[in-house]
Amino acid sequence: MVSPGVIELHEVADLKQVAHNEVLMNVKRIGVCGSDIHVYHGKHPFTKYPIIQGHEYSGEVIKVGKDVTKVKPGMKITARPQLTCGTCAPCKRGDYNVCQKLRVEGFHANGCAQDYFVVTEDRVLVLPDSLSFDVAATVEPVSVAVHATGRGGDLYEKNVVVAGAGTIGNLVAQCAMAKGARKVLVTDLSEFRLNKAVESGIGFISNSGTESFEDAVTRVFGDEGFQVGFECAGVEITLQNLVNYIENGSRIVVVGVYSEFPKVNYNFVGEHELMIIGTLMYKHEDYGEAIRLLDKGVVKTNQLITNHFSFEEYTKAYNFIDEQGDRTLKVMIDL
């Protein structure tokens, strides 16, 4: 992507060598993320151009460096797109997902939108044969949901609201259920996305265009209220609703990416002793848990994959998402 809205395809030289700790893979599927669309419109706050996009992917190992022991040619893999410094305070304490010099492939460094891609062994995860390349390419967004729900604390027997029924909101709701939440309510304006939530086994939904947030919370939870909220829409009003109606002393996790800074009544936050918590990406163990949940069928993503485009149709895929955004969830690029 050479500038907002402009994508070019180039032929590059074949990759001949890999370093001692590197893995060469043939990319098979790339998932398009909402953050990719922010970049397409020039609205992602941390991306400069030109950039090769792509950070959700699956593929096959072609070649490995001499010191690589975890994988061998022919294996199905994915990898974390995080490039970290290893020396800052967060990295030293194990919180490399918030590395102070974090670079993410597809945003700060070139990503996987290429036939062959090199990754270091420490970021690679082996995928079971039970996962198709399509499902395997959804490990990244499931990992986001695994990490985000972990930031929500102990969800067992808690009532949970997920604002936003897009791919991440859907997966956050599925992960909350997997972690023992009592009831999970998902809100959105799109009937298509809400129907996908029902297909995913999420029991409680509300269309924000036809039912107020307060009425939905009362209908689903009654006097119990809700104790954890996940803001997955990146919209000011949904964050305000969570703040205004969550049980006192509770926790709200901000998952969505905002194109405009939201306003929040922090007097209310203080008076009700609410915790507003950020979440960023994932750690290696979140990837491992995401693979386990998908392999066991506890979290399902097949129903979220709504469209496929060829590699040569990257621009067409982005334009389709712009035009049909309320009728699609996860778009896959096939190589």
What would you say this structure looks like, in words?
- By secondary structure, the protein is of the alpha/beta class.
- It has two domains: 22-138 and 301-334, Alpha-Beta Complex (Quinone Oxidoreductase, Chain A, domain 1); 143-278, Rossmann fold, CATH 3.40.50.720.
- The chain contains eleven helices and 15 strands.
- The chain has helices spanning 34-40, 89-92, 133-136, 139-151, 167-178, 191-199, 213-221, 236-245, 266-271, 284-296, 314-324, and strands at residues 22-32, 56-64, 76-79, 82-83, 103-104, 116-120, 124-126, 159-163, 183-188, 204-207, 228-231, 251-254, 275-278, 305-310, 330-334.
- The strands form three sheets. Strands 1, 2, 3, 6, 7, 14 and 15 form a seven-stranded mixed beta sheet that branches. A six-stranded parallel beta sheet has the order 10-9-8-11-12-13, with helices on both faces.
- β9, α6 (191-199) and β10 (204-207) form a beta-alpha-beta unit.
- α4 (139-151) crosses α10 (284-296).
- The longest helix is centred in the middle third of the chain and has 13 residues, at 139-151.
- The chain is globular and about 65 Å long.
CATH superfamily of the largest domain: Medium-chain alcohol dehydrogenases, catalytic domain
Shape: globular
Termini, distance in Å? 18 Å
Q: The biggest beta sheet, please? A: 7 strands, mixed
Question: What is the CATH class name of the largest domain?
Answer: Alpha Beta
Number of helices: 11
Please estimate the helix content.
Answer: 25-40%
One letter per element, helices H and strands E, the order comes to: EHEEEHEEEHHEHEHEHEHEHEHEHE
Low-pLDDT stretches are none
Q: What is the residue-averaged pLDDT?
A: 96
By CATH, the topology of the largest domain is Quinone Oxidoreductase, Chain A, domain 1
CATH-derived architecture of the largest domain? Alpha-Beta Complex
Oligomeric state as shown: single chain
Let me know the number of strands.
15
Structural class: alpha/beta
Strand content: 15-25%
- Our Rg estimate from Cα atoms comes to 20 Å
